[in-house]
Design a protein that fits this description.
single chain; mainly alpha; 5 helices; globular
Length: 111
């Protein structure tokens, strides 16, 4: 085994303790809301999807050795986390990076 269960569970717990600044939380919410109001989507990211994005951002920051989430952490995981939660409008190309389209429309907050 690459990692034992006890170590994995400890790492998961530690990752969920990574701090998310209120500005970054707002950024997460704005990204998700944009998927629900876009003319390119039929169905956008749900509140549960937003929570999943925050959890993945925390895990990414943890694995990068940081104690807080940055907007770049959100961008790093947004594509894989959000893409399968979005139903695109007819004619939209699913292979174009959702993260590149979605996160590029927002000013990245500084924390």
């Amino acid at each position: 085994a690459v990692i034992d269960q006890e170590t994995l569970e400890r790492m998961q717990k530690e990752a969920m303790e990574v701090y998310v600044h209120p500005t970054v939380r707002g950024y997460l919410a704005d990204l998700s809301a944009a998927t629900r109001s876009s003319d390119q989507t039929v169905m956008g990211v749900s509140p549960r999807g937003t929570i999943a994005l925050m959890r993945a951002s925390r895990a990414w920051a943890y694995l990068e050795g940081r104690s807080s989430v940055t907007p770049d952490d959100v961008k790093a995981v947004a594509g894989p986390v959000m893409a399968h939660r979005v139903v695109l409008s007819y004619g939209q190309n699913r292979f174009i990076s959702f993260a590149a389209r979605g996160t590029g429309k927002f000013t990245t907050p500084s924390c």
